[in-house]
Each structure stands twice: as structure tokens, then as C-alpha cells.
Structure to design on (60 residues):
């Protein structure tokens, strides 16, 4: 016996049951503007030698 595919209404119900409702839309006045920042400095620029950097990266 072949199974009949779900109808659009049944699929919509299953999506709602699985995912719920979408959150409210974010209003334009609630958004923030991003500011570009300088890239992070390299360890060489900070005066840290490679052994110290390995220890920092290892969590020691």
C-alpha cells in the first residue's frame, strides 16, 4: 500500500509543531550600528617571544 504525501496544511502543522512560531521582527530603531575596529595585533608586535606565546596558547 503506497503512502499518500502530506497535504500543505498537514506540512504547515508539522513545521509549527517542530519549530514553533518565529520571534517578533527586530525594529530598525532597535538595531545597532557596527563599528570597524583595528585588526588584532600579532604577538610579535606585543614583544612576546614564541616560547611565551606557546605557553599562553597552551593555557599555562
Amino acid at each position: 500500500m503506497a503512502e499518500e504525501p502530506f497535504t500543505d496544511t498537514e506540512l504547515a502543522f508539522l513545521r509549527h509543531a517542530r519549530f514553533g512560531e518565529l520571534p517578533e521582527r527586530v525594529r530598525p530603531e532597535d538595531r545597532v550600528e557596527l563599528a570597524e575596529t583595528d585588526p588584532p595585533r600579532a604577538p610579535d608586535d606585543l614583544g612576546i617571544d614564541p616560547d611565551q606565546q606557546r605557553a599562553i596558547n597552551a593555557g599555562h
Notes: The chain has a mean pLDDT of 85. The radius of gyration is 27 Å. Residues 8-19 form the longest helix (12 residues).
